[in-house]
Amino acid sequence: MTVSSTAASSQPAGTTLGGTSIQLITGRDPDRDSLTSVAKALALLSAFTPHHPTMGVSEIARRTHMPKSTAHRLLAVLVDWEMVTKRGTEYSPGARLNELAALTAQPDAQELRRVALPHLLDLYEMTHETVNLCILAGEDALYVDKIHGHNSVNSPACVGARLPAANTAAGKALLAFSGNDVLARVSENLRPATSSSIATPRQLAREVAVIQRSGIAYDRQETKPGLTCIAAPVRSWSGAVIAAVSISGPVHRFRPANAVPAIRTVAAGVAKLAQEASWQRHTSG
Fold it and tell me: Which of 24, 78, 117, 169 would be a feasible disulfide site paired with 231, CB 3.0-4.6 Å?
């Protein structure tokens, strides 16, 4: 027998009434409430991005579509756990997140940055333009390293940023050699950023075919007006593409086609060191 909490207000949950076990109906599921709170806390943490590393509670609440009072309450808990740092009225990711990030299962990305850096520096010295190292993260190009060029154009790409892969040279270099399932997902969810961005699956298919033949990808003001880019894939010992190296610069100064030899050389150099590092781990393990 089940009775309402109003009818049995004098009886605690889980007790018996007349020898019959009674479950009180309160209209709330503690487990569901806990999961909802966890999801909201994760949403708050996800509101921080490389371009928005510090925000006030009003902005965080707006970005997460949460009541300000709810955001304020959950942020207080995250501050207590050092997941978020509060300085004055503004919040930013906390030190504890850095500790957890160091434990994440991405040793390959860290190793990739280590072996790639000398070649990225070489590429920068050849061009004096901005140099990027990216990997594919779902349907996005994830920027794992960047060296800024002289008088570089303000760009949405920064370390830790994720941009739609179909909009960027590095992303397209990665997509062209990814699986058909990845290409299908990206084709169904194109997110053009400018009037020059790829906007249809047919456009993406044509571009991918060209990249597969040439091994070179371009961003023709598809990420931001005034910014152009060239990229080449980095391959593992198995031939799989594990990263992409790119050079970006302003359209009035940078001529991507002139950088083809340099980008090929550097991508091959990064691949060679990455393959050697992978083989050393394999043989020592």
Answer: 169
Between 23 and 159, residue with greater pLDDT: 159
What is the sign, positive or negative, of the torsion defined by CA atoms of 177, 214, 210, 154? positive
Q: 212-225 b/e with 16+ CB inside 10 Å = b?
A: eeebbbbbebbbbe
Residue where one domain finishes, among candidates 78, 98, 118: 98
The DSSP element (H or E) to which 137 belongs, if any, is: strand 130-137
**pLDDT at residue number 218:** 97
Residue 15 located in a structural domain: no
The mean pLDDT value for 92-101 works out to: 80
Distances (CA, A) of 189 to 165, 166, 167, 207, 242: 11, 10, 12, 16, 22
Nearest to 90 by CA among 60, 62, 56, 58: 56
Q: In sequence order, what are the residues at sequence separation of 6 or more whose Cβ sits closer than 8 angstroms to the Cβ of residue 111?
A: 274, 277
Total domains, the chain? 2
Residues 200 and 127 in one domain: yes
Is 17's pLDDT higher than 80?
no
Per the domain annotation, does 245 fall within a domain?
yes
- Domain membership flag for residue 264: yes
pLDDT at 57: 94
Q: Are 219 and 101 in contact (CB under 8 A)?
A: no
